[in-house]
Design brief:
The complex is a heterodimer of chains A (about 260) and B (about 325).
Chain A lengths: L6 E12 L2 E13 L4 E5 L6 H8 L7 E6 L4 H6 L3 E4 L11 H11 L4 H14 L15 H13 L5 E5 L7 H18 L2 E6 L2 H7 L2 E6 L4 E7 L14 H20 L1
Parallel strand pairs in A: 3-7, 3-8, 5-6, 6-7
Antiparallel strand pairs in A: 1-2, 1-4, 8-9
Chain B lengths: L3 H49 L1 H10 L9 H5 L3 H7 L1 H7 L11 H13 L9 H32 L1 H16 L2 H14 L5 H24 L4 H9 L4 H36 L8 H10 L3 H32 L5
Helix pairs in contact in B: 2-5, 4-5, 6-14, 7-8, 7-10, 7-12, 7-13, 8-10, 9-10, 10-12, 12-14, 13-14
The chains are: A alpha/beta (about 260), B mainly alpha (about 325).
Chain lengths: ~260, ~325
Amino acid sequence: MTASPVIRAKGLNLTFQTNDGPVHALKDVDLDVSKGEFVSFIGPSGCGKTTFLRCVAGLETPTGGELSVDGMSPEEARKARAYGYVFQAAGLYPWRTIGGNIRLPLEIMGYSREEKAERVKNTLELVDLAGFEKKFPWQLSGGMQQRASIARALSFDAPILLMDEPFGALDEIVRDRLNEELLALWARTEKTMLFVTHSIPEAVYLSTKIVVMSPRPGRISDVIESPLPRERPLDIRDSREFIEVAHRVREGLRAGMEAA
Amino acid sequence: MSDTAPIAAQGAGVGRSGRVALWARSLGGGLAPVLTVVAALVALWYLACIPMNASQSVLDASRAGIEVTPASPSDRRGMSGTALALQNPGVALSNAYVQDRPKLPAPHQVAAELWTGLAGAAPTSPRSLIYHGWVTLSATGLGFAIGTVMGILLAVGIVHSRVMDMSVMPWAIISQTIPIIAIAPMIIVVLYSVGIQGLVPKAIISAYLSFFPVVVGMVKGLRSPDAMQIDLLRTYGASRGEMFWKLRLPSSMPYLFASLKIGFAASLVGAIVGELPTGATAGLGARLLAGSYYGQTIQIWSALFAAAILAALSVGVIGALERGLLARMGMRR
């Protein structure tokens, strides 16, 4: 983790012009993310965590400051397909099978026929959906659909994975299992993960680094390096370290709210 | 994760058997109410024939020497059909369904005329409703095809170009506020003056009516993908063309078929209206016109029903295409 940062934000600002006047979605955000880190963004609604992720993805253009992704501008990184993006909803195309959905980015990126088949098979195995290639999305449960959407983001093997509350709509039990699987996936693929969440336990359980954000204007109020080991069974959540980190996150959130 | 597999398989099974059950229910449980409504309408129709045809019924009876009240034709002139039928119930009932040119033909008279038209003459003879139906259907089909292609092209332009969005849509809407009965003769006369007649002018009138629902439906359909789905393709660096073929077009299919059904019905109306002002000798419109010239009400009604049957069959075909395509696309559950 000593390599130069994969994502570097310096004095990042983004102001939306709305009918009620300008809204400061991001204010002076400084953040470095190294290769292979798992970074969670946590904070109340309107704190700019999703906006920051969209800036990294080149879906929003910052109004000030610097942002580089994999050594490129976000726009270039988007064109270079440097990242996979997982949205809040699975957003699978209902007219495509699970395999067809995972093939979608590969078609656009112009992979060969054999390579497409190969990658679809591999990513389906990676998210434990082998055998579901020919099913349509409606034949799968919500958790399985979200796994398929993760597979879709992984299929072209981008070095960065951006996830915007991917498990927000799922129930706690499914969510726990998917969190565990996500960690295993991360260990296997060694990708750099940026993960937006509302849930403190989720953020603490998953991350090597937790970025606490606060609203109006959206800014970073604390960055916590997690002391937890990389190998994390689910019951680590009952350990003293885990509870201490969770406590610090909660403190950070409260401080941010009071300052606002 | 092996524990999730049976769950999904079960879900899939429920979906399928549920579909079968629904089918069976709509067949068994759906037929009775439909038949009840049809029977009620037919009964109402038969009932309405009595007062509608009463004045002719009473006139025929008095000419045949039967005593009617009031006896003088001049006294009867101002009376309503209902009043006449009430004063001469026997005559009004017995003569209501046997007239040659009733004001309101009875269902069985229309059905008999329809049957003669469909089966009583060779399909190539001008006495055949199949012949007239084909003449109208070919103009409808051509117009429908032109209208659909135009409608889709306009919708694609409107969705992709702000200029077209601002400029074309208002004109498309204005075009539909002009009564077709006013513009159809103009189209026919103008095209005749440049030497085009027959099928094409009728098809153009059809297209004029049918492009509109396709434009409206397709604009809505092509815009139906939400922001997230568009963002997803942007993260892949997809071009506008890829966005169209992989997302917008497939998303718009359910909207397209809804529009096609409306568009086809409008096309048929357009073709029939297109047959009226030319004094055409062939086509369902010509049959309607000829029937009204000579007071052949039964002929008018049979032509009307032929048009309705044609529309129902065609819309049924479009519906079958829709089901086939959406099932292939996995969008029908």
